[in-house]
Amino acid sequence: MSSFTLHDANSAPEAAKPLLEKSQKAFGMVPGLHAVMAEAPGLLEGYQTLHNLFLNSSFDAEEQTVVWQTINVEHACHYCVPAHTGIAKSMKVSDDISDALRDETPLPSAKLEALRDFTLAMLRQRGELSAEQLQAFHAAGYNQRHVLEIILGLSQKVMSNYTNHIAQTPVDEPFKRFAWSKKG
């Protein structure tokens, strides 16, 4: 069992209280991840900022979901995979895409599959990609901005996935129906 505190407006450090209010307004609740991150207000603020920046990236909702869930699944994040399944539903992303990401099965389009492959390469190779990998990504219809925005999404997900691993953040009630564990 984790010894990390799930903070609320009463227990959070002063600098985290407005950040938790922001989470409450945005999500109608304080997600458990944010409640844990509140212990280090800079982490929560950084996470919220990166989240908003990634939401406003050049990726559409399906592509954002592919980047987020590819990273979540690769990191085997017990919290983020269910949460982003619910987020994908709210963003009107098809269940076919969500299921393929969760189950690590083929995506419904070659372009989305190229995005998943490139995101995995970026993650696994720590950004040390070959010219051929970049060319293949560009040939799929993506550009340099997309390459850099994957780094943005990856940065956000490292913050959340690692926090959830170490804190064993309990999955929020609205997302429990999307419970997930990595196969194999």
Provide structural commentary:
By secondary structure, the chain is mostly helical. The protein contains nine helices and no strands. It has two domains: 14-54, no CATH class; 59-178, AhpD-like, CATH 1.20.1290.10. The chain is 62% helix and 0% strand. α4 runs antiparallel to α5 and α4 packs across α7 (110-124). The two termini are 24 Å apart.
Number of helices: 9
Class from helix and strand fractions: mainly alpha
- Number of domain modules: 2
Low-confidence stretches: none
Instruction: Report the span from N to C terminus.
Output: 24 Å
CATH architecture of the largest domain: Up-down Bundle
Please give the radius of gyration in angstroms. 16 Å
Determine the mean pLDDT. Answer: 97
CATH topology of the largest domain: AhpD-like
What proportion strand?
under 5%
* Main beta-sheet annotation: none
**What's the shape?**
globular
**Strand tally:** 0
| CATH C-level of the largest domain | Mainly Alpha
Give me a quick take on this structure.
This protein is mainly alpha-helical. It is built from nine helices and no strands.
Set down the secondary structure blueprint.
Layout (H helix, E strand, L loop, with lengths): L16 H11 L4 H6 L3 H15 L5 H14 L5 H11 L4 H9 L6 H15 L6 H9 L4 H24 L17
Keywords:
single chain, 184 residues, mainly alpha, AhpD-like
